[in-house]
Amino acid sequence: MSDPSTKRRRLNGPTAADRETSPGYTSAGNDQDSKVANASNQAKQSKPQNSTKSANRFAEVGKATGLSKSSIFKLQTDELLAGLRPDYDKLVSTVQRNLRQIRDILQQVPERESKRADVAAKELRDKYRVTVPFPCHSSDDLAKCHVSSKPPTSIDLVGSVILRAGLQATEPFNVDIAVTIPSTLFQPKDYRNYKYFQKRAFYIACIAASLREAKVPFSIQYEYQDGDVLRPIIVLEPTENAAKDSLKQLIRIRILTAVEDDLFPVARTLPSKNNIQASGAEDEPQSTDENKSSPYYNSALRFESTVIPYQKWLQSSLKKYASMRDACLLGQTWLRQHGFASSIEKGGFGSFEWMLLLALLFEGGGANGKAILLPSYSSYQIFKAAMQYLVARDLMQPLSLFANDVEFPAGGPVFFDGKRGLNILYKMTIGSYKLLRHECSLTLSLLNETRFDNFEKVFIAQNNDPMLKFDRLVSLTPQQQVADPLHSVSYQNHIYDILEKSLGDRAKVISLWTDSPSPRPLKSKSLKETHSQHISIGLILDPENASRLVDHGPAAEMQEQAAAFRAFWGDKAELRRFRDGSILESLVWSDQGSVVDQILVYSLSRHLKVSRQSIKCIGDEFDETLQQLAGSEKQTAAMFQGVRDAFQSLQSSFQSMDDIPLQVRHLQPASPFLRSTAVISDPNDIGLTPVDINLQLESSTKWPDNLDAIQMTKVAFLLRIGEALKDNGDVNSFRVGLENESRRLVNRAFLDIVHKTGIQFRLRIHHEREATLLERKLKEGGLSPQYKEDVGAALFEYKKTFIHTPRLTQVVQTLSNRYPLLSPTVRLMKYWFNSQLLLSHVTEEFVELLAINVYVSTHPWASPSSLMTGFYRTLSLLSKWNWQQEPLILDMGGLTTEDVRAIETRFLAWRNIDPAMKKVGGNVREFEWRSSSKFKLDLRLAAFMDINDAFSASADTHTGHLVDDFGYVFVSLTAATGAVAYCRDGEYPWFFSDTSE
After folding, report:
1. What is the pTM of this model?
2. Is 192 helix (H, G, I), strand (E, B) or coil?
3. Kind and range of the H or E element at 735?
4. Residues 503-543 pLDDT 10s
5. DSSP code of 986?
6. DSSP letters for 174-185
7. Distance CA 110, CA 356 (A)
8. How far apart are the C-alpha atoms of 236 and 212, rounded to whole Å?
9. Cβ neighbour number for residue 549 with a 10 Å cutoff
């Protein structure tokens, strides 16, 4: 139970003794505090995550001085925490006078005699223009409920201000006041049928009337605590004049309610009890199948009794465990960056639940009741251990601490605090809990990664954008309106059950969220909340199963299961015989369009009785864009397969060729066509674009030792090869061509071959001696700077053409088999680059590596399972990548810490030589890609940022509404151009930019 030695903090602020003993209290004159205050002020100006500039600086210094990853991480964490801690003394002193004024008003709330709820509400509305925010509005319920009011039993400052465990935020800072309602206002059975919440709503309205009558310098509104319509609260926000005069940081004062912890017996509010019964029922609540339990209602009721006990207990825990406060800040930062909060709309797991979780894990949660967390742990160790616990322990299997023989109904996660009788996860749905575990698992992968500095990905990067997080989005507008205040919770659970059953193993995570209830003026004519809110659905798909066209149900002889299957799927279910002789209930989906979208529309419209126009699936727009560009995926796959077949045929021809003096060692693919990443508008035009291939012959001492002579020898070989292929009937025609005619040091001859399938190949000969000669020239003395630069460029061109490009082709081929969506993502990104007039400024390989990074490197997300997320994550990466200061390193397998250090060292060296360089590095044993260009990318990267912002705006995570119009993403930005010339009757704009400035 709570620590009896801990006193409640009154509203007259901390005493001198409290300041000496209060954990986290800091003196305003302390030097360390001034640093914290400066960091806090910087956080106010920009965003809390901007405090990582110093953290990143520590990382760079740490690497330079050889510090271990853990030491660097600790430096970064300490710097981040310094910028996250608010200046509580300054904050409290700012509102001290206002808090005392509010305390005096609350202590003088007038007594009101017991009356029928509807009569008492009318009096408040007529006299004070204050509407009572009753959760239930039926006239029968209000007529049967009698309400009254008295001054509160106690008034306490609660929450992060008194615990000193909150975050420095850009949003208004909440200062919470808990008003304990006198127990004499309630009857013993008021825990049933919303009676407590009806009386609570009236008490809140009485407080609002007193505040309005006192004319406090605040705007007064109703709001729902954590989005719970059962628990309206009062929110006081400074008026504009007050804010200018005294409140430099926007502060909101929230007035919450509490009751004595023994007002209602814990046994009557356990999750298994049913406290919502039919009107007129007088029997005691039971937990039976016929009498369904009301776990959410019971927990919301019990929460009111735990406000003060939890406040005392958390104060005691923060004093007892030195690192817990900082661990709370780290956890709150992580939750905020991932879009989690205590409100129901944001998952039901926020800063308060995180603190409770840590405090409980310090006392138990392990085997045989042992503690998971130890007092000796650092803040980082606490954070990581809590993450590991959330991943390892599936709380869908209820966990009860300090209480035995407690029954829990199925349908949600349970972490039950037996001492205070509350399931701290009661606001979480199954979907939000599974999403939380999924995010924790990804974060653990980042924390366990030893090769890269992932600090920013864990604590700084914003990972709450649904377009980045989910593979498929659905916007649902229910048509049914129900007045039940708990309908939103039950309705979401119903939708989740439908989706889980219909999607099966196609979806790894199903997440639902709704609009946040908006604040309500006190004089609203009606505070009745519309519970049939707009609902957004996010899916994280399993790529192996998402596109499956046939689903197998139960066998025909399993009559019960088959009947249930047909009842769920209706006319869509059909009985089929398969090749193995089995007869199964089955579902067959069309291969035209997304299978997931077909399932979503069918199952939701069937079981929710909503029109198909009310269901909007988001994500297929990108597949359609690519299809318009290059035909269907089937056509594209057939085209690429045709190229590969032709290449294999040509490879066989070379292996059997005996008309040239040297044997063939390798025929290597080196073209986007052979790695399935080429963009071509019409598959019928594939023969117009040469497919690059490289031929390597066996080594011989008869090759000349002069670069010019080597080029002439290549021409002779190419002529002989072309004639041999022509004579054997393997090709229709051939011709030898010259490239780079003005550059003597690079390859100049190639052979164009028109294969008998009509596909054109461009063959170049790879001779290893060229690299040796070029390296030797670089080491010669007396060379002019210009000539030396030409030699270096030739060596780079040689490695790119004959080493890196073939290796890249092999890697992309392998990865395309592992990630089927990689090829479409690359092609769509090339289309986007081209639409923004950027493809001429970067190489195709550069674009490919950007997309590959999204699939193979460690990120705060799993690998994309839809084209939408693959494309958007690549675009987001491009908009945020600081290419001037860091290389983009891809892990293709086998990458070690030493490899990463070598790449970073090489990058710094090249950066000193060529400040305009952009570099993407793979495994050092595989390839690296460097591009040097005089073209300034700053303006173009700004365009990337604009598009990224537009994408973020399209998914408004604050309101939950999703926008599905993404056509503008592939429209060129004309703001950066000096002139626009419209061609082809205005259908396709071609831009000519004046860059003279």
Report:
1. 0.85
2. coil
3. strand 731-738
4. 999 999 999 998 887 888 998 765 555 444 689 999 999 98
5. T
6. EEEEEEEPPGGG
7. 36
8. 11
9. 11
